[in-house]
Amino acid sequence: MILVTKWFGVFLVDREKVIRHILFEKEPVAIAAKLAKVQRGEILPEEEKLAVKRMKVAEPRLSSLGKPIFLDSSFIRSEDYGYSLQLMQRSMVELGKIRTREPLPADRFIVQAVRGMDDLIEMINLMSERLHEWYGLHFPELTNYARDERYAALIAEKGLREDILDILELQYLESVGAELEEKDLAVVRGYAASLVSLYEEKQRLEAYVADRMEDVAPNISAIVGPSLGARLISLAGGLRRLASLPAGTIQLLGAEKALFAHLRQGKRPPKHGIIFQHPTVHRAPYWQRGNISRTMGGKLAIAAKVDYYKGEFIGDKLNEDIARRVEEIQKKYPEPPKRSPPRTGRSKYPGPKKGGRGRPGKQKGKGRKRS
Fold it and tell me: Rounded to whole angstroms, how far apart are CA atoms 186 and 180?
């Protein structure tokens, strides 16, 4: 016998014959509540009540009650039990309301915060470039004494070249910039103030991500830091997705373009993705980075699984394992590999094969003449 759950009830069938069944209430809200539990992977009381020994089930969700198998349950029709299609439609609407009101996992907010921070960085870069070009007409030498947020803050607070020179104690400096009228300077200062507010918002987002990562993914944060760990979660599409990825995929997250260039065009394969931003990787010699990235990818795969399933904190142990493995790599590969001379033949990473003419064979009818 096989246990089947439909939108209007639970059925115990033998081949295409219904042996027993329990129907849900004919209320859209009640039906939607049952279906929401099913979508969350829970087992309904009606399913436990109909369960028998040595039965099979039609869903992997019910694997604790029996062996899952495929079953075409289209012979169980709602009309035969007095459930109309209009009732199903209202139940689906209520189900949508229930699922949208459910609390979201915290990693979803981390993903959005990281993507918002990327948008802020892009806007900051564009506005900073424009501000340097704009205010450079008045005081081009300021770029040598202030950068980034400090550059914008000086313009927003003081504006006039002479006032900025007093703050920087550069009264002796003679600028080659042109003079600005009061109304022009006011607009530039307002633009600089907007840029300063973007820098402040970026800092707030960074603090928020660091705080949330300590709660959601402490083991990942212990290995690569909260900022880089949040970007890995964002690239994977969530902590659940990251926990399901193999170590080799985590190692190459962020290097998708280089990977596809290798697969399609035969270029050299990438050794690391965004994980390159970690100091242990980018400070290592180039011939050791691949092995170190592979080690970190494996430990990150373990950390992601522990964080997703709410396990204990093992970040310190994982860091010790990484440090031990890095030391082994440094001892095993102290010198760069010898570069082989360039070959004029086929490439080590050939691209797609192209059609061509083969070697000419012997022509028929042109053998040795008989005497």
Answer: 10
CB distance 251 to 296 below 8 Å:
yes
What are the pLDDT digits (tens) for 14-48? Answer: 888 999 999 999 999 999 999 999 998 899 999 99
Confidence of residue 346 (pLDDT cuts 50, 70, 90): low
Q: Residues 181-205: what's their mean pLDDT?
A: 94
Rounded distance, CA 136 to CA 161, Å?
11
pLDDT for 43-69, tens place per residue? 999 999 998 888 999 999 999 999 999
* Cα 228 from chain centre: 11
Residue 133 sits in which domain range? Answer: 106-212
**CATH code, domain with 159:** 1.10.287.4070
End-to-end CA distance of the chain: 87
Which of 101, 127, 142 is where one domain is finished? 101
Inter-residue contact 326 to 356 (CB < 8 Å): no
Do 116 and 154 lie in one domain? The reply is yes
Same domain, 154 and 72: no
- Give the mean pLDDT of 281-287: 91
Name, in order, each residue with C-beta under 8 angstroms of 176's C-beta and a sequence gap of 6 or more. 140, 141
Q: Is 125 in a helix, a strand, or coil?
A: helix
